[in-house]
Every structure is written in C-alpha cells, then in structure tokens.
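Example record used in the benchmark description.
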Amino acid sequence: MCKMEQLGPYTLSWPDGVFPLGGDALALGGFATVRSGWRVCDLGTGSGALLLLLAGRDPTLVLHGAELDPLAARTARDNLTANGLTGEIIAGDLRNDLFSAGQFDLVVSNPPYFPVGSGRSGGPARSEEFCTLDDLCAAAARLTRNGGRFALCHRPERLADVVCALRGHGLEPKRLSLKAHGPGHPPSLLLMEAVKQGRPGLKISL
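Model output (structure tokens):
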C-alpha cells in the first residue's frame, strides 16, 4: 500500500517498508539554508522527502541523495521523476565514496538517533547500527566544499555528541534551533547547521 503527502508544490509517496514522513524532516526542510543553484546532497534520503522540501523552497537546486536501502532509494528516484525533478539517487553505504569529495554546497541528513546498546530504539531506521553520528559527520565533511554547510536534526539530549562530532571533522556549528511539542514542554528536537572550516560563533533560536 502506498501513502501520499503533499509537500508544497510536490507530492511525496512511499510504500510500506520505507520510513514514513515525519515532523523532524519537515522541520529540517524549513531550517536548512538554501541558495539558488546550490548542489545539495541528502545522506540517508529515504523516500526523498527532504529533497522535495528543499526543492519546494528553490527549484533551481541540484539534487542528490544516498540511501542504503534499495527500496527506499528507488522510491526517492520515483518521487523526483513523478514531480518533474531531475537528480541522482545512489543506493549504497554513505560511509563509502559514493560521490566525489567537496562537490556540495549543502549536505543534509535526518539520521539515526540512538546508539547501539543504548536501550532505546525507534526501529532499524533510528538505530546507529549501520551509521554512527561520527560516520555521518565524516561523510558530510568529505562531501561539503570549504565554506559549504551541513544541516541535520537530532535529539536534544545528544547535543554534546553532535557538537563534538561536527567539530571533530572540521564542521563548525553556526546555527542551532530547539523545537518543543508545545508551551511548557521540553525541547524534543534540535536542528543544527555547521559550516566546513567556518569560524567559531553559534546562534541559538527557539
């Protein structure tokens, strides 16, 4: 059975077995910096939802994605085609050299949140079994040009891990936004954007 969701001018669809659209991806799609003509890569793209969200903000973006699961990768390709968008989706492990280094202006990711052995899991797509936070930041740093950006979402309780992993790979945290489910609730999502070889200086918003 295929589910569908309207994302601005584009329609996202995904079959059973592909990670569904969630609020985290929607938030990240509106948070990441985009500029006309930028080359963008989504690591762990799933159904391609983030690519559609970013293209909805600027249709001149040059879209790429990497996805380990072959069904999800095929779904992402189908979603680009169905919406009249061109792009390259590679089915493979982002820890491998799927794309040439330093070619992207923006890398984005809605990654696994929970380390293996942490006792917490949101299912296979939310466990770091196949991709740790450090693996992700290493891949993003390799793919991003100097001065380019890496934007991701994560759990607030892992803020220290996110900052350390980013800085450990030459990605300087520049923008942080914390999101809560409503007034009086603690933050449930962090959105972070880092600049490769950027100067220190972090702006925080709610």
